[in-house]
Design brief:
InterPro entries: LapA_dom
Keywords: Cell membrane, Coiled coil, Membrane, Transmembrane, Transmembrane helix
Helix content: over 70%
Number of domains: 2
Order of helices and strands: HEHEHHH
Largest sheet: 2 strands, antiparallel
Number of helices: 5
Radius of gyration: 30 Å
Protein name: Lipopolysaccharide assembly protein A domain-containing protein
Organism: Pseudooceanicola batsensis (strain ATCC BAA-863 / DSM 15984 / KCTC 12145 / HTCC2597) (Oceanicola batsensis)
Length: 113
């Protein structure tokens, strides 16, 4: 299984290198519309190799997806935390009740119960 993972990572790396080599041309990227850039007073464009823009888009999509899933699963994590607190409370109560049941008894007899 380890070798299959390494083979997959090697193929992925070769594919990314091939995409980068095929898209080395410099392109101009507009960061803001012309009108908005004039209002803000910023340069609305930058020149980058195309593969950088492609890879940045992939990474940005992954990060947005991870954050979206983390926010979506918040209710499940909150429910697990609530149940864990409830289990801890019930375990403390059981220990307390067992201690009260065996209070004043011989320790050997308490162990047998």
């Amino acid at each position: 299984m380890k070798y299959i993972r390494y083979l997959f990572l090697a193929c992925l790396g070769l594919t990314l290198i091939a995409v980068a080599l095929a898209n080395r041309n410099i392109v101009e990227l507009q960061l803001l519309p012309e009108g908005l850039a004039r209002i803000v007073g910023l340069n609305p464009s930058t020149s980058l190799p195309l593969f950088v823009i492609i890879f940045f888009g992939v990474v940005a999509g992954l990060l947005i997806g991870f954050v979206w899933e983390w926010l979506r699963e918040h209710k499940h994590r909150a429910e697990v935390n609530r149940k864990a607190k409830e289990v801890g409370k019930l375990e403390r109560e059981v220990r307390k009740l067992k201690g009260e049941k065996h209070q004043g008894k011989d320790e050997v007899l308490a162990l047998l119960d």
